[in-house]
């Protein structure tokens, strides 16, 4: 199959979260299964041109109001995909939209004002890219709201034009799949932006764009794509009910025959304690000595006493409401303060995000000797935290899949998680009576539930060490490889193709 991934992020080129990991890892796995995969992302300013190859000739993209946007296209092979069937990555280079710091925003403008233009142009340019390459995909696979209107262009611009000419058009056989990674971000903008998209106003009113007078880009994609999915089975169910549907539960119920959940895998070349180059010594379930060394290195890195007997609880997270940071670090009510005050443990955090939260974390760390934090983004330290911690805390409000709990499990680090989304599909709650399970779970997102569940894990650490060791090994042998999930995507693509 010829598959085109349309995304705003892909590791190692541009990343703000798990979306970037998922797009690249899935593409690599599909290529290993023999499919021809290309990824297209914008060329942000942060992606240096020197390492890329320019495809000669400027490319024009027709937008609304007769505007023709001219862009350049660069390309590179996805690192680690080998020579035989490399995943090709294409970069749409358009200075006025992408020649700036930040993918979606900057510290002073958190959501760029021209995002509806930036990403609608990007989605439209994807089709021009295919023409330029004279390569037409069987499956156009779009990810999240920035790519969500690529399926809309396929349906209402490309296919409509082909129907009008009644000829075999370039995209006549192309089907579309839209993956929801996070329903909390939908790309909702003023409808004044709609003219630029170059689609008729009938499309605005009849095909999902219209949202209480505003323009909703994800919603339009959910109406138009041939197949929809999200990144775990449990989140797929949750999103069809009001509390998790972010006002789109009705649309998802309406499309439920075409909507499914496929659990993300993890990239075992990158996240695997047996081969990890970021940790001082690799390790496996058979010999955990490298994990003890990683714990020491982690304690040293964060300036904590190097004590093997104290449990280390790690966190690596975007500091945003989705991740339960209010309940954890909120001033006066967050549980971090009482956890560190009352329990014999060390708490370590790496993260960045909302300013109030970065500030509170700094303030807490200055008052508590057993809480240390680094604000910022650091790949190296994130691996060290996964390897060197004993527990990994994710008190998410909602979690479409979550990658860190899976990384934790394969690194022998026990997750402490809220029972939501993909966390339900990947973590099995500890049973004190039998010792079964792979982690610790709680239902309500409130400071006392976090406090009590961390307390439960710490109790088990000091009183049920045999259970802790058995749970570690159980987690480490779990198969979270992408191969299984990639095959499910192939099935989904097949369904989309057969239906046509
Ligand atoms: P989300 O995409 O919602 O943030 P995921 O668990 O799917 O959540 O993925 C988060 C990814 O981003 C993981 O690979 C995690 O290690 C990484 N990450 C998040 N914050 C940081 C940070 N400050 N430094 C390094 N990696 C980070
Ligand atoms: C989103 C979700 C996260 C998921 C990731 C990759 O960022 O918040 O739960 O793991 O996408 O699909």
In short:
The protein is α/β, with parallel strands linked by helices and 500 residues long. It has helices spanning 18-32, 95-98, 115-133, 144-147, 150-165, 194-197, 201-206, 217-224, 233-238, 242-245, 249-254, 289-301, 325-329, 336-342, 355-367, 379-388, 404-410, 421-426, 447-463, 465-476, 482-499, and strands spanning 2-6, 36-42, 53-62, 68-77, 88-93, 139-143, 175-180, 188-190, 210-211, 214-216, 227-230, 259-261, 312-319, 346-353, 371-375, 391-394, 414-418, 440-442. The chain folds into two domains: 2-265 and 482-499, 3-Layer(aba) Sandwich (Rossmann fold); 289-476, Rossmann fold.
Kindly describe this structure.
Helix content is 40%, strand content 19%. The protein is built from 21 helices and 18 strands. The protein has helices at 18-32, 95-98, 115-133, 144-147, 150-165, 194-197, 201-206, 217-224, 233-238, 242-245, 249-254, 289-301, 325-329, 336-342, 355-367, 379-388, 404-410, 421-426, 447-463, 465-476, 482-499; strands spanning 2-6, 36-42, 53-62, 68-77, 88-93, 139-143, 175-180, 188-190, 210-211, 214-216, 227-230, 259-261, 312-319, 346-353, 371-375, 391-394, 414-418, 440-442. It has a nine-stranded mixed β-sheet, sandwiched between helices. Strands 15-14-13-16-17-18 form a six-stranded parallel β-sheet, with helices on both faces. Strands 8-10-9 form a three-stranded antiparallel β-sheet. Bound molecules: adenosine-5'-diphosphate (ADP) and alpha-D-glucopyranose. Adenosine-5'-diphosphate binds at residues 17-19, 21, 316-318, 350-352, 377-379, 382, 401-404. The site of adenosine-5'-diphosphate has 18 residues, from helix 1, strand 13, strand 14 and helix 16.
